[in-house]
Amino acid sequence: MNLPRPQDFLLNAVSGTRVVVRYRLDNGFTDALGYLLSVTDGACTIRTRQSDVEIPLALVVAAKEVPPRPPHRIPRTAPQ
Fold first, then answer.
1. 6-65 has which CATH code?
2. Whole-model pTM above 0.70?
3. What's the pLDDT band for 70 if we cut at 50, 70, 90?
4. Which distant-in-sequence residues (6+ apart) come within 8 Å of 38 by Cβ?
């Protein structure tokens, strides 16, 4: 059985889709969670909370769509 490559998922995903992408670093792996901004044959750009991250597609080992971020909850106040 042939599983789809994560690069193919990214190349076919719609810009603005919320994704998580796992990719190789020199000393292991890391994840980028955010919104897909763009994809070319060579790299994808993910907008995370901290910054835009450009990831070479050759380093991607996994990628998938994730649900929207839950809304921010207002803290409850203690009854007085």
1. 2.30.30.520
2. yes
3. confident
4. 15, 44, 45
